[in-house]
Amino acid sequence: MIRLNRRHALGLMGATAGSLLLPGYLRAQGTRPSVTIAVQKITNNNTLDPWNEQSNVGERVLYPNLWEGLILRDWMGDQGPVPGLATEWKRIDEQTLELKLRPGVKFHNGDEMTAEDVAFSFSKERVFGDTEPAGGKTIFAENFKPETAKDIPANVPGIGRRKWPSLAGVEVIDKYTVRFHNATPDVTLEGRLYAGGSQILNRRAWDEAATYSDWAAKPITTGPYMVGEYRPDVSLTLVAFDDYWGGRPPLESITFVEVPEVASRVNGLLSGEYDFACDLPPDQIGTVMNVDGFEVQNSTIWNHRISVFNTENEILADPLVRRAMTHAIDREAIVQALWGGMTNVPAGLQFESFRSSDMFIEGWKVPEYNPTLARDLLKQAGYKGDAIPYRLLNNYYTNQTANGQIMVEMWKQVGLNVEIEMKENWGQIHDPAGIKGVRDWSASNTINDPITPMVVQFGPNGEVQQKKDWSNAELNDLSVVMETSTDRGLRKKAIARMLEIAEREDPAYQLLHQNAVFTGMRSDLGWKAAPAFAMDFRASNWPSNG
């Protein structure tokens, strides 16, 4: 984590001189402050359901302030597992995990959390529908048709099995003890419990909600803050839950405001309208830091930016064309031009944290920048210059539009005719109507094992195959090995081969760079940014008011 302020501003790109007279730090009535945070987007699906909102923007507003799991992710540390709603856990065997629940935990409606709430949180009604606990099979949303307003959305069962391919059920042992039963061995059961989706809800609140939409707009959870008001596409206000098991929250309220334009977020921060401005591009760092009383915190995070290929496109069906596209991109030039060198090009779809379990493939690299090779591959493919569509969002990702424009020019230099098609939302990006080609995405390591992101995002039940972008039979077989084998050597061999397939032989994606988060803020707040999209406003990450 790098903490930047005015004295670091000189020499950074985009720095501007000047200062502003700032209003006093606005505090809520009483002893606790409230904060307002300007974000590019609050949620993608207009719900606060972690199963339905599998996104970077959702991570920011859902964790760790609203939703919690049995095992928590150490957001301010190494991102590994720490006790949460469970105080301890142990393996019964390769397919069974037992957890002891934290007694006395209160939901926002005053109910005590028990094993019954945990079991329901992983039930067919809540997550899995009529799917079976068996991996290696693609589950399409169109196979599920909600029959009542209370039924889960059609996409949720597939997401559930993406994260828990072989979970057979959760057994209630007693009020404070549960056992997770898997249909197959799985070395990642513990990790799956702190991934997005595996958080615990209140069973009674679910039952009492008239519709799924009603419940998903104001879910009853155990977090330090609860939903005060949610206005989709406008704002989300979380208010303190003073019966929180981890102690009294330090803030009266947290309001996330959707401000799509970078300039508006920056201007609002500097004028005192917002206390935080998220999703800043590097060229705005100097603008913020050169004003007294403000700083920018930044960090690379466990997320890589990628572009995904759609092989239903007749041109991209040929792997030679996709390989040419990967060799036409000068990733280091993009990192320097758009990011000022403040991120890096990683060793393929891998994360340094994989080294802790000896699952990092040493010596692996992204495809080299080689325009000559790219032209030769296009010649072998017999490419005639036909247009390849590139569906692009307007800076959903930081620097996304500029990055897309640069890549189009790089592709043009080797003879590829890629045409940008600007879209307004993810629904338009994934719309099966029309001709697909290339799209942007990102890939996250959520459970500190190569199963994420490779299997979770590109395996048989990953979003890429659910959206019919790409599929590979050998990679699907290897995904099952990754999900079920307890042999580390066999799993390491499998992930090495999966990298060869997805990045070299039959490219599913091209990796661009590791993602980085830049957050502008008032220096007097004393808050620290996590190396993640999530923003932690628990007492441990807020200075004492006393």
Question: Which structural traits does this protein have?
Answer:
2 domains; 21% strand; 17 strands; 11-stranded mixed beta sheet; alpha+beta; Dipeptide-binding Protein, domain 3; 546 residues; 4-stranded antiparallel beta sheet
> Mean pLDDT, rounded to whole units?
93
Quaternary class: single chain
Sheet with the most strands? 11 strands, mixed
Low-pLDDT residue spans: 5-29
* Termini gap: 27 Å
Count, helices: 18
> What is the domain tally?
2
Beta percentage is 15-25%
**Rg of Cα set:** 23 Å
CATH superfamily of the largest domain: Dipeptide-binding Protein, Domain 3
Q: Which geometry do the CA atoms define? A: globular
Q: Helix/strand-derived class?
A: alpha+beta
Extended strand count: 17
List the helices and strands and how they pair.
Layout: E1 2-4, E2 34-39, H1 56-62, E3 71-73, E4 81-83, E5 86-93, E6 96-101, H2 115-121, H3 124-128, H4 156-163, E7 167-174, E8 177-182, H5 189-192, H6 203-208, H7 212-217, E9 225-231, E10 235-240, E11 253-258, H8 262-271, E12 276-277, H9 285-289, E13 294-309, H10 319-327, H11 331-339, H12 371-381, E14 388-393, H13 400-413, E15 418-423, H14 426-430, E16 438-444, H15 451-458, H16 463-466, H17 473-484, H18 488-505, E17 509-522
Parallel strand pairs: 2-11, 2-12, 14-15, 14-16
Antiparallel strand pairs: 1-13, 3-4, 5-6, 6-8, 7-8, 9-10, 10-11, 12-17, 13-16, 13-17
Helix pairs in contact: 10-12, 17-18
